[in-house]
Amino acid sequence: MIRPVILRPMALRPATLGLVALAVLVLVLPLVISNSFYLDLVIRIAINAIIVLGLNLLIGFAGQISFGHAGFLGIGAYASAVLPTHFGWPPLLALIAGAAAAAALAAVMAWPIFRLKGHYLAMATLGLGIILNLIFRNEASYTGGPDGMAVPAMELFGLQLSRDRQWYWVIAALLLVSVWASLNIIDSPFGRALRALHGSDVAARVVGVDIARYKMAIFVMSATFASIMGSITAHYVGFVTPNIADFFHSVELVTMVVVGGMASVFGSLLGAVLLTILPQALATFEGWETVAFGAILILCMIFMPRGLLPTLAARLGSLRFAVARLRAGRSAGESDS
Amino acid sequence: MLAQFLQYLFSGITIGATYALAALGFTMIYNASTVINFAQGEFIMLGGMLAVMFQQAGFPLPLAVLLAIIVPSLVGVLMEKMVVEPVRSADTVNIIIITIGASLVIRGVVQVVFGKGAFMLSSFSGDTPVEIGGAMIMPQSFWVIGVSALVVVGLWYFFTRTLTGKAMLATSFNRTAAELVGINTSWVLWMSFAMSAAVGALGGVLVTPLTMTSYDSGIMLGLKGFVAAVVGGLGSGAGALVGGLLVGVLEAMGAGYLSSSYKDALPFVLILLILFFLPRGLFGSRQTERV
Amino acid sequence: MMARTSTAPATPVLSVRDLSINFGGVRAVQNVSFDIASGCIYSVIGPNGAGKTTLFNLITGVYVPTAGEILLDGQPVQGQPPHRLARRGVARTFQNLQVCLNMTALENVMVGAHLRLDRNVLKAAFRWPSLRRADQALHQEAAELMRFVGLEHALEARADAMSYGALKRLEIARALAMKPRLLFLDEPAAGLNPRETLEIDELIRKVAVSGVTVVLVEHDMKMVMSLSDRILVLDYGKKLAEGTAAEIRQDPAVIAAYLGAGAAGETP
Ligand SMILES: Nc1ncnc2c1ncn2[C@@H]1O[C@H](COP(=O)(O)OP(=O)(O)OP(=O)(O)O)[C@@H](O)[C@H]1O
Ligand SMILES: [Mg+2]
Fold it and tell me: TM segments (chain A) (predicted)?
């Protein structure tokens, strides 16, 4: 018997539901939050979430590790700090220049880097990040060295972005667009090619995917994304130090991807929420925060290797399955057991 | 001129010997398990810190050094049993994150116990420099180079001449085959963690009188040890040794002749260049991936 | 000699000339030459380790030959990467499954149509209408293909939840989604039960009838003998014999090799 495939209508897909829920949350949050501390926390979470979305496309979907992504954040942040301060560039132009530089660097590095696999790839990206960090740290006459430097306010078409509320709406809008775009990308020919080269690179090549080009494309995209978010972070905070580009920050970002859930868009959001809040929450443990952070990473990886959201979803799925079976069993009567 | 060159060369070989020990640590664990242990640097730091602690507690130096090697080995075994064993078959990224988690735990505990200050260990045989060709060499440098050389020879003997060592090496080549001929591969795993922790800690103990140590000194030492291991081609013992010395000498020369503020960047520039031209390091073999 | 040569034009779709590859000391394929005429079912047989899979890997660009030529429609293509060859209508399946387990079954098939789609990221990110429409159409087409290979029950399955036999078919569906001219199947019936094997046999016939040239590696001799227009026999990387099923069955070298290899059960 031939029946047409059941294509679920847009409105019912879980991804769409998630997007709608997120939009509602974004609209409601500012009404609920009055405290500027929490508003600041929410903005930081959203910024991390956007970076992690881009990184998850690279790590989770395309299967390529990067332990140097904070370096690209640094490029954006310092472009937005140095170019307006020392050369009088308008902030928006500086942001674009930073993004272009990050994209160019990523493109140049991608060709040699992505011939590498596994640990070699981890090593190369890590090295790149560390070199960038050292540049920001050492070129003190431009960057202020380890102490960092102030960043002028962001100006959009003559309007200065200064108050947290304004920033909230800009970043919230960016977040929604990023989630939507990520969902669209993974469900497109481009996204399927990326996921295919992760699943089996030889299968992808054989069906015609030029895997080198795809790895490069996604690396450049996520680097550009990171640079733009680096610029935005710098403007929002009003200050930048080399710590934005250090190895530990790269590790934090990767951790957000992995703990939230590799290849899960909403997992990235969850990862960003948890790992932005966690250090703040642990700060009260005075000295033990590093230990606790490490222990939580380990426990997460041992007990939820696929990340929080996919694990929860699977649990929920099997629960539903069990309930359904139970119901079916009841309605069929006890005769078959 | 020559004196200066010799000076840099010696300090490069000294620090390079430490990197080589760290790289050997990476290599041993990698061979036994294909895991890259990002906590390797913490073993180095732990060695230095514990030696300081035991010495300050009044232990004679040899005993303090011995304890500073034994305790990290136990930590290594503990780490393997509790953290690495449960995720044997996990993805590369997951395992990397687990070992990073372990490194945070170790670093965090040290920070709580010892604080954030820097610690000094007294030199093993005084601080009167020896002059060689115009270069002034600290006696501790000879300790570092000499003991490292002994360790390398010892490891070489262990892996090529003893049954236990050969069994470990066999496991790294083919785990299933090793199990078939009756090698207890789980034993090989924790043994490799113990040994690499010991070797790393020893490096830390030896170099601390020259560099001082603090809770966070393991990060860079570990990363550079990783660079050294990759320079030579992951899994190659000779590669780790050459890689370590190469990284150390390059760094010292760079610091002396180019710019001391970029000396930390040099190992990473080196590794990028090597990976670009030799994707499997200097000593890695070329293979066609099977399909 | 060949039934078709009297009617078909002279240039074969695929010609292989003195093809060789060495892995270190192992000479996995040595000086192998043969031609495949358009539209036929061509089989490659030989004992384990004879070099059959390696030959497929060479022709589809996965390995680069040490020496020799591969001509597609008379043009040399040796050394070209797989994605280039895919553009020229070469498709394949794998002996050791190469299914993307991180995707659904349907998506695996859709990936097969990669080259026929608009791969622009920006259009994808913003749900460009033409791209969405093409994707919807592809959904239907992929589902159609899954039915064609007998996977109608798995339309919504995740690939990692499917059985071995189902995955073998899924690979065929993915290859067909490329709309290939030349289809290489590496042991499509291995590990399948007799009923499933029969279904694969049926499937290959249907594919061949639709005009696709099929190149088959298979250990099931009954299937090979009944399906193939011509057969190439490899042994230790070398060409041992080539001809129709009837010729191969009587070839003394072939019989000796198979008996020598101890594969008495598989003796043609
Ligand atoms: N990438 C590789 N590296 C090294 N040796 C290889 C590689 N690929 C194949 N070989 C060797 O080449 C020879 C031929 O292998 P191949 O897989 O082509 O055999 P086959 O005819 O497909 O066998 P089977 O019937 O078992 O599938 C074998 O000795 C194999 O070990
Ligand atoms: Mg084969």
Answer: 12-33, 45-63, 93-113, 120-136, 167-186, 217-237, 257-278, 290-309
Smallest CA–CA distance, residue A90 to chain B, in Å, is 31
Q: Is A333 in CB contact (< 8 Å) with chain B?
A: no
Residue pairs between chains A and B whose CB atoms are closer than 8 Å: 127
Question: CA of A31 to nearest chain B CA: how many angstroms apart?
Answer: 37
What is the domain count for chain A?
Answer: 2
Three-state SS string over A167-232 comes to: HHHHHHHHHHHHHHHHHHHHCCHHHHHHHHHHHCHHHHHHCCCCHHHHHHHHHHHHHHHHHHHHHH
Range of the domain at B135: 2-277
Last residue of a domain, which of A245, A264, A290?
Answer: A245
CATH code, domain with B221: 1.10.3470
Q: Which residue from B95, B100, B106 is facing A251, i.e. has the nearest CB? A: B100
> Are A265 and A153 in a shared domain?
no
Number of domains in chain B: 1
- pLDDT tens, residue by residue, C124-143: 999 999 999 999 999 999 99
Quick check: CB of C22 below 6 Å from ligand 1? no
User: What single-letter amino acid sits at A140?
Assistant: A
pTM assigned to the model: 0.89
Are A217 and A275 within one domain? no
- Closest chain C CA to residue A192: C111
Atom of ligand 1 nearest to the CA of C50: 21
Segment B186-231, tens digit of pLDDT: 888 889 999 999 999 999 999 999 998 999 999 999 999 999 998 8
Instruction: Tell me the per-residue pLDDT of A20-68, one tens digit each, with 9 for 90 and over.
Output: 999 999 999 988 888 888 999 999 999 999 999 999 999 999 999 899 9
Q: Which atom of ligand 1 is nearest to the CA of B288?
A: 1
Assess whether A143 and A260 both reside in one domain: no
Distance (Å) from the C-alpha of residue C71 to the closest C-alpha of chain A? 18
| CB-based contact, C136 to chain A, within 8 Å | yes
In a domain, A200, yes or no: no
Cβ B209 vs Cβ B121: under 8 Å? yes
| Residues A73 and A134 placed together within one structural domain of the fold | yes
For residue C4, what pLDDT is reported? 44
C50 in ligand 1 pocket by Cβ < 6 Å?
A: yes
Q: Within this chain, do residues A127 and A67 fall inside the same structural domain, yes or no?
A: yes
**Cβ density class B22-56: b for 16+ within 10 Å, e for less:** bbbbbbbbbbbbbbbbbbbbbbbbbbbbbbbbbbe
DSSP B90: S
Helices (H) and strands (E) counted in chain A, each on its own, are 14, 4
Name the band, by pLDDT with cuts 50, 70 and 90, for residue A12: low
Domain boundaries, chain C: 1-81+214-268
C-alpha A1/C-alpha A6 separation (Å) is 15
Domain-embedded: residue A272 = yes
Measured in residues, chain A has a length of 337
Ligand 1: which residue has its CA nearest to atom 18?
A: C51
Q: Is the CB of C15 under 6 A from ligand 1?
A: no
Summary mean pLDDT of chain B = 90
Of C106 and A283, the structure prediction assigns the larger pLDDT to C106
Q: What is the CATH number of domain C1-81+214-268?
A: 3.40.50.300
C174 CB neighbours in chain A (<8 A) are 203, 207
CA distance A89 to A79: 10
- C-beta neighbour count of B160 within 10 angstroms: 11
What is the Å distance from ligand 1's center to C236 Cα? Answer: 10
Note whether residue A66 is domain-resident: yes
Whether the CB-CB separation of B50 and B72 falls below 8 Å is answered with yes
Give the nearest chain C residue to A306 (CA atoms). Answer: C102
Q: What is the pLDDT of residue B284?
A: 66
* Residue A328: pLDDT over 80: no
Q: Which of A191, A209, A263 sits opposite C124 (nearest CB)?
A: A191
